[in-house]
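ESCALATION

Customer reports they have been waiting on this structure for their group meeting. Please prioritize. Original submission:
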Amino acid sequence: MKHFILLMHADTLRPERDEDWEPYIGRLIGMGCFQGGSSMGQGQAFRKEGDAAPLTRDLTGYIKIQAESFEHASAALEGNPTYEAGGTVEIRELVEG
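Update from on-call: job pushed to the front of the queue and completed.
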């Protein structure tokens, strides 16, 4: 199994409903793919020398899942409150090294 992270952006076309997250997470748990996640607050970007790249301010949360492939990971979009409200959800494979 591979590990993936879903990154939710703050660009929804309609308001998300907080009450939609619990059934969505329950669905991922039922599928056996949920590995954790959290909302994300404010932050800062750092660099040892020089100016850091701008902070990506539109990220609102993440969910870690496991799946056999990228195609299987994309099945986790169904019911995602950000995705269903017309927002962007990035899926990135976490490279084990």
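Sent to customer with the following note: The chain has three helices and four strands.
Escalation resolved.
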